[in-house]
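User: Predict the complex.
Assistant: Input components as received:
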Amino acid sequence: MTDLTRSPTRAGALSAARALPIVCAFLLGVFVIGGTGFAQMAAAHNAAHDHRHSIGFPCH
Amino acid sequence: MTLFRTIVLLAALVGFGAGVVLTVVQQFGTQPLIVKAEVFEQARSEASAPKPHDHEPSGAHDHLAASAADVAAAEAHEHGGGDEWAPADGAERFLWTLAANVVSGVGFALLLVAASELKGGLTSWREGLFWGLAGFAVFTLAPSIGLPPEAPGVEGAPLMDRQVWWIGTAVATAAGLALLAYGRSALAALGAIVLIAAPHVIGAPQATEAPAIPRDLEHDFVVAVTVTGFVFWAAIGVLAGALRGRFAAA
């Protein structure tokens, strides 16, 4: 858990070793939001219907 | 991949908290309006479809005064009109909405935490709040300029076109804000302005059909979604900023 400790300088915060897991986490987020907000399957739409409207996603 | 695990764990906590906050705000803000709008949506789809039985001999169906029967019909309504599964009203519908709110909260928290880690990570709830406000600008404000949040009964352009414009606007706005915040040259600032303005110059796909719901309900819904989005994003940012330090210290 020490990876999160701030680097001495902001400019040095991003190394290749840090970038890969960060990008992977970001892509996981994109995937999750795609499922709840944008998947067009009827069951996914109906389950998340009120959520989609409440957050302003294009719904139907 | 310890960093990956830490980001996911932090985002899970943040997303759970923000999803619960969203659910509370939603129950008082958008949800009553969604239910109200569904009455009109249902009335229109019934008007355009052959009725199995006509219980209104006069034919004077008052769209503004929703009867108890209308409410019941709207609540039983399934989008798509087919036999697809949909959660039953009451506890089941509420729980699925809560689940979608939490899962989506985790998704957005992943984006916010990952993006802020690229810049060295959040140091306080206050810094997190600013990132949350950026999220609000990117995912609520910018898309709603061209595509105001639609209550049920507000027909838009084809769904796929709207989704593409919505996502494109969010991406362009995020890139523009990043350039504004971290770019060091006038050229970067100019690029940022172009990126943020471009989706609105191109224009969102527009509806051809007038909404089935009254104008004031449409307006109230846009306000409710904007406020709900603001609280949701503030919660994500503050929670991420406040909790991140505990992970770093561990």
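Chain A touches chain B through 46 residues (CB under 8 Å).
Let me know if you want any component modeled separately.
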